[in-house]
Structure formats: C-alpha cells, structure tokens
Write a structure and sequence with these properties.
CATH class: Alpha Beta
Keywords: Acyltransferase, Transferase
Order of helices and strands: EHHEEEHEHEE
Radius of gyration: 14 Å
Protein name: N-acetyltransferase domain-containing protein
Largest sheet: 7 strands, mixed
Structural class: alpha+beta
GO molecular function: acyltransferase activity, transferring groups other than amino-acyl groups
Number of strands: 7
Distance between the termini: 26 Å
Number of domains: 1
Domain N-acetyltransferase: 1-139
C-alpha cells in the first residue's frame, strides 16, 4: 500500500468513497441527503492524503493542519480491515506531530473502538442530543 497526498484528479474516487462509506455506516443520517459534493465542501482548506493499492484508492484522511486536527478518515467499505486506516493515522501523526485530536460520532461504536485500540483517548463527549460526538486525543 502506498500513501501520498491527494491530487485533484483523485477527487472523483475520493468523493465516491466518502459517499459510500457514510451511506453504509452512518445509520443516523438520511442517506438521501448525502451527495458526492459533500466531499469538496467538507474538506475545504484541508490537506488530504490517500492510501492506494494497484492504482485503486482504498481510503483517505483529511487534516486541518493549523489545529493538529484530523477531520475525516474514511476507508472504502470493501477495503475495511486491510490496514489502510492504520497507515492513514500514522501519516497524520507524522505530518501533524502530537498531540493530535479528532472527533468521532458517539453512535459510531466501530470507529470509537478502532481509535481506542490504537491508543487514542476519549476526552469529552459534546454535541446536541442526537448528534453527540467524542473528542479524542493522541499524545
């Protein structure tokens, strides 16, 4: 697997991964309200890295560098469990240094477990009822 910075030419695949992953995993959202353009809107002013294998993008991570913040980490559902998420997290820590923070929707138990198994600590739960999320930190 190769990690590199995303280029504009990669965006069609990244948009598709973002859309498909959220439609499959984010059961608390209305899938009809999700669209391909969400990726462009949600990653503005962020540095994006992707992981690929055999010229196929498996996942991506978007970083808001000024705050040492991981905004998005998504792996295509078909590539889940193959190590792409681990590689992307390691790249983020390499680029941002520590401490690094991220937010994870409280209902996304699979993602919370993924981060906690890798040494991330849940610091505080925030958000409105029905839209709670955990702030996690890696030091």
């Amino acid at each position: 697997m190769l990690i590199r910075e995303a280029k504009t030419i990669d965006y069609p695949q990244l948009r598709q991964i973002y859309l498909e992953s959220r439609r499959q995993s984010f059961h608390w959202l209305n899938p009809e309200e999700l669209n391909l353009q969400d990726f462009d809107q949600d990653t503005q002013e962020e540095q994006i890295f992707l992981v690929e294998e055999n010229n196929k993008i498996l996942g991506f991570i978007s970083l808001y560098v000024p705050d040492r913040f991981i905004h998005l980490l998504f792996v295509h559902p078909e590539a889940a469990g193959q190590g792409a998420g681990d590689l992307l997290l390691k790249q983020a820590i390499k680029v941002l240094g520590t401490p690094v923070t991220l937010k994870c929707v409280s209902e996304n138990h699979k993602a919370l477990s993924f981060y906690q198994k890798r040494g991330w600590k849940a610091v505080v739960e925030e958000g409105e009822p029905g839209a709670e999320y955990w702030v996690l930190i890696y030091e």
